[in-house]
Amino acid sequence: MSTGHVLLGLLSRGQQHGYDLKAGHDALFPSARPMAYGQVYAALTRLRDRGLIEEAAVERAGGPERTTYRLTPAGRDELEVWMSAAEHPPSEVNNPLATKLNVALVAGGPDEGALFLRRQRSAHTARMRDHTQTKRAADATLTQVLAADYALSHLDADVRWIDDALARLGEITREVTP
Amino acid sequence: MSTGHVLLGLLSRGQQHGYDLKAGHDALFPSARPMAYGQVYAALTRLRDRGLIEEAAVERAGGPERTTYRLTPAGRDELEVWMSAAEHPPSEVNNPLATKLNVALVAGGPDEGALFLRRQRSAHTARMRDHTQTKRAADATLTQVLAADYALSHLDADVRWIDDALARLGEITREVTP
DNA sequence: ATCGACTATTCGCATAGTGAATAGTCTGTT
DNA sequence: AACAGACTATTCACTATGCGAATAGTCGAT
Fold first, then answer.
1. pTM for the complete prediction?
2. Which domain of life is it from (chains A, B) (predicted)?
C-alpha cells in the first residue's frame, strides 16, 4: 500500500486533513499522477481502521467541516518499518516483456514473437530519445532529470534483454512451446 | 488487464475451460505466482461480458460440469491489438526508489534519505549475487536464465540511480523540502 | 463402503482507484 | 445587496482485480 505509506510520511510532518494531504502529495511528486480525492479519503479510512492514524480534531473554521488526522505510535512504527525495508524491484513475476513474448510465441509462433520484440525495441528507443530531450531542456528540475535518468537506464536494460531474446529466439521457442 | 490477455493468448491455441487455463498459465509461467482459481473464473466472466470469448460447450464428461470457452472474432482482434502495442515500462510515476527517498526526506531529512539509499543499495547487490548464482546453476533453464538477466540488468540500473542520488543528495533535499 | 485425491467451479470478501456529486464559504462584480 | 464563480473539504457510487475457502461430483485404492 504505497499510497498509504506516502500519506503516513506526509503526516509525520504534523497533523493534516485529507485536502492538504492530496495537495502535499501532488507537490512532492509533481510528475506522478495527482491523487484523486476519493483515493486519499479511502486510504485515510483504511489507515484509521488499521490504527495507524487517528482523528486529531473535527473542526469548522471558515469553510466546511474538516477532519484532521495524526499518526499513532503504531503508524510511526509502520512508517519506520516501511522505510527500513528495501523495495523489491520488478522480479521475473512481473516482467511484461517476457509475459508478452511467451503469449506471442504460444499464440503466433516464433515470427509473431520476433515481430513483438522488434516493435517493442523501436518503441523503447523512441522513448529513450524523448527522455534524453527532457533531461537536456534548460528548465529541467533535478527531480525531472533524476526521473529521466531512471527511465533511461531501465529502458536500456529492457533493450539489452530484447536483443538477447532475439538472439536466442529459436531456443526460447523450443522451451516454451513443447 | 494482463491476466485477461494471457488467457486470451492461451485460448488462441483452441477452446479450453478454466481449470485447464489455470494449469496452462502455471506451466507457461513457472516462476510467476500461480493463478488462483477465483482469479481465472472471474477473468473469464469479464472476458465473456466484454464479448471477447464465448461459451463453446457445457458438458459433463466423467467429472463435474465443465464450461469450455473459445475466442470470438472480437477477442482475436483484442489479442492482436495487445500484441502489437508496445508495453509502457515503469515511468517516473512508479519509481519506488524516488517515492521512498522523497518520503524519507520529508519525514526524516537528509540523513534518513541517505540511510535508505545505502540500505537499498546493499539489498540490491545481495539480490544481484543471488540472481548470478541462479544463472550459473547447472540445471538452469533458458527461461530462468533470461529471467535472471532481466532482474540483474534492472537491479544494476537501480544501483546506478542510487549512486547518482547519493552523490546529489544535498541538492535533492533542497529541492524536495522547501 | 468409504477415504482421499483429483477435476471444476462458485462465493464472499478485501483492496485500490476513478469521476462526479455535495455542500459550505469567501471574494469580486454589477 | 445580490449573486456568480472560485475555493475548501468530503462523500458516494462504481469498476477492476485478486485471494482463500467452500462446494460438489467422480474415480481409484484400501
1. 0.88
2. Bacteria
